[in-house]
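Chapter summary example: a protein plus BIS(adenosine)-5'-pentaphosphate.
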Amino acid sequence: MRVVILGAPGAGKGTHAKYLESRYNLPHVSTGDILRQAVDDQTPLGQMASAYMSKGELVPDTLMLDLIRERLTRPDCRVGFVLDGFPRTIAQAEGLERLMEKTLGGGLDAVVFIRVPHDVIVQRLAGRRACKHCGRLYHTAFVPSVNEGICDSCGGELYQRDDDREEMISARLEVFEKQTAPLIEYYRHRRLLSEVDGVGGLEEVRDRIVGVLGLRA
Ligand code: AP5
């Protein structure tokens, strides 16, 4: 199954994509995670991307399309994948369509849009923490770790992303509304879109996503 999870920053894309990976063995492809790793490793891609990411802006489409082509043509994606954070512009969606038709054989099976109001998003991003070692996601109030600052899974240190600072959150939400929200109509028009209410507990939202994808719980 080839799925795109669409949603504003903090909507829960990463949280639910990780679940789909662990439960259904679908590789979770997060362009944000790939870019953050490239920035940490100071690769040429990371050096180019960091100027955009530090302002909450989108990395140019050409770079993103090269990155996604390289990732989706790896053998693990033959079984399918869950895309989190890509596409983010109409140009990226068109590039993905071309890549899938020409190189991957066939198109997407579904696009799930997780709708969450802005006030909830701000709360979620402000409290988000991630494990430096394994990437597991937490929230200081909604999904706390047992021991503060330490990952329950691997004992790694939890950190707050630079772009989760309050002043960056509104910039990212603005970018979403202007550049990414048009994808909702784009995929609705192609009859691929399912919209899911992203407000509610983790398991509640997860069940809605599993339901619209027609997967066995
Ligand atoms: P990226 O990493 O993709 O960030 P994002 O889209 O802003 O999304 P987030 O990771 O912030 O949120 P999420 O929806 O995954 O929410 P999460 O599950 O963590 O991109 C970062 C940057 O990289 C971009 O700004 C851009 O510069 C660049 N970039 C990336 N892709 C690009 C592309 N394709 N083109 C150009 N540039 C690109 O959940 C958030 C929090 O809420 C967590 O703490 C979680 O525990 C909690 N939570 C989730 N669901 C619930 C719930 N139901 N109840 C309570 N808490 C919940």
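Key point: The chain has a mean pLDDT of 96.
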